[in-house]
Structure formats: C-alpha cells, structure tokens
Amino acid sequence: MSWIVRSVAVAAMIAGLISVEPAQAYGRDGHRIVCDLAYRYLSDAARTEVDRLVAEDPQFTHFRDVCSWADEVRGSTHRHTAPWHYINQERNDPHVDAEDCAENGCVTSAIDLHAGIFADASRSDADRLEALKFLAHWMGDIHQPLHVSIAGDRGGNDINVLWRGERHTNLHRVWDSEIILDYMAGEWAWAPADERWQYFAEELAAGIPLAGVDVYTPLDPIGWAQESHDIVRSREFAYYWARAENAPIEPGDHYYETGLRISQQRLQAAGVRLAGLLNQIVEGRTQTARTVPDLPGSGALD
Ligand code: ADE
Ligand code: ZN
Ligand code: ZN
C-alpha cells in the first residue's frame, strides 16, 4: 500500500466508515495460526520440502506467511480462484457431496487440484510452490464453518451483526475474524496486536496431544466440508434462522463463548490435518495406518 492509500484507509477506519480487512476467508491471523500449527507437525521430509519451496518465493520467507496469499490474489491475478474459497449447499440439503461443487469449482475441488499438483514431482517447483500456497489456504477455509454454508446470503456475508453491542459487522466476519481477534485482545492485551497470533497458536498447540505422534491425513475434502456444514446447521450456530434482510442480529457473550470453543477446535483440526496431508503427500504414503484418530472439532456438534 502506498502511504497515500494507507493514510486514507486509516482515516476512514478511524471515521468508522470502512474496514480494510477483506471479509472473505479466515482473516490473516486465522490462516497464519493454521499454518503455524501445521508446521509444528510436519515430518522432517515434509518440512524440508516445504522450506525448500518457500525459499524460492519472491514475496515470503516462512511457510506461515504464505497462507493468506490466496486472498491477496483472488480479486486480481487469480480471479478464477474466487469461488474456490468455499462451497455452498442448497438450504434443504444437509449432505455435502461432489455434486454440490459449483461449475467453476469450489473449495473441495480446489483441495483435490492443488494436492494433486503439489504431489506431482514432474511439475516445476514454481507450480508446486503455488499449489502449496493455495492448499495451505484452502485447508483453513474449509474448516471455517461458514465456508460450507448456503449461497443466498453468501456464507453469512449478508447477515448484519452488531457484534457484542459495539461493532457493526456481518456473520461471516464474526467467524473469520471477530471471535479470534476478541479472544486474543482479551488474553494478550499487553502484546502488540500483530504479535498476538503467536500466543494463540502456542496455546492451541499445547491443547493438541500429539507429542511424538507421526501425523498422516488421507485426502478427504468432502468429509472436512461436511463437518463444517454440520456445525453451521447446528442449533447453537444460529445461522439457519437468520435472514439477510432483517435488522442486525446481536449475538451475546454466550454466542461468543460457544463460537470461541468451536473456532479453537476448527483451527486445531485444520492445522493438524494440513500437516498430515503434506506429510502423506511428501512421503508418498498410500496406506494410512498411523492416521491420527479423533481430532478435537472433527465430530459434528449436536
Ligand atoms: N461467497 C459466497 N458464498 C460464500 C461463502 N460460503 N463463503 C465465503 N464467501 C462466499
Ligand atoms: Zn479464502
Ligand atoms: Zn471467510
């Protein structure tokens, strides 16, 4: 951003007119946390390969930093990928399957595509690096419940929310960013805002009992999407009752607490599975004997 654009943006934010964060995916912190978690569970071989490819990137130096790139390019150089950040269901269709994917692609087909390119040793490093950057991003998106929701309100983007009595936002952003930001601001208020994600990642990692376990994850984007969809359909998510044209809904502290618990579980599941998928691909595994059993957040809520 040039300083002029930045000054205008800052002035507008102060005036409360616009917000600079795009409302399309897990916010930057969510994606960074997923990739930071994943990096901790990479096998030696997978970490070496990931580091080798990322070292060739002109823009980024560390794996965790590449994970929001897909949001940066969806409106410019990679417009065809814009629908690949989510998959929408018919309102009365609770089962996610391949036929629900839009003609131009969706998050489940994008995961298949980019896992395939990343796995293909005959492709160039540049292609495999780009596929890795996309794949790492999609694994975050598919675990954000509202990325597997219904089309009419664009995954909650059209549902106005007055968040905790003070911020005008929408339901999609609540789940991309607001819950995560509020939690971090409360827990690590003393830390600079752009460093808080590290503490959250550390805390989430401490809650994952995988010390010494080799993590492998078979490719199952439809299954992961189904989990997200089960969450958005659950009573506590309060999504199927909301209507885009209505006055803002005002979720209270109870919704925040529930949302935080779900968000923590989904970030953990996304991070562990991303690692397991990369491990499995890099090591060329076809059998999944050591697949991690139950992950937090992998079961449907009731
Ligand atoms: N645009 C349309 N549907 C969407 C969804 N489920 N998530 C994010 N953006 C969307
Ligand atoms: Zn996205
Ligand atoms: Zn989003």
> What is the average of the pLDDT values?
88
Q: Helix content range of the residues, please?
A: 40-55%
Give the terminus-to-terminus CA distance.
Answer: 45 Å
Number of helices: 10
Q: How much of the polypeptide forms β-strand, as a percent range?
A: under 5%
Care to count the β-strands? 4
Give an overview in words:
This protein is 48% helix and 5% strand. The chain has 302 residues and is mainly α. Strand 3 (160-163) and strand 4 (167-170) form a beta hairpin. One zinc ion is lined by residues 24-25, 144, 147, 172, 176. One zinc ion binds at residues 24-25, 70-71, 85, 137, 141.
Sum this structure up briefly.
The protein has 10 helices and 4 strands, in the order H-H-H-H-E-H-H-E-E-E-H-H-H-H. With 302 residues, it is mainly α. Adenine binds next to loops.
Distinctive features:
single chain, mainly alpha, binds adenine, disordered N terminus, two-stranded antiparallel sheet, 302 residues, globular, two-stranded parallel sheet, 48% helix, binds zinc ion, 10 helices
Topology at a glance:
Elements: H1 3-14, H2 28-40, H3 44-54, H4 69-73, E1 87-89, H5 107-119, H6 125-143, E2 148-150, E3 160-163, E4 167-170, H7 171-187, H8 196-206, H9 221-233, H10 253-282
Parallel strand pairs: 1-2
Antiparallel strand pairs: 3-4
Helix pairs in contact: 2-6, 2-8, 2-10, 3-10, 5-6, 6-10, 7-10
Bound molecules: adenine and zinc ion (2 copies).
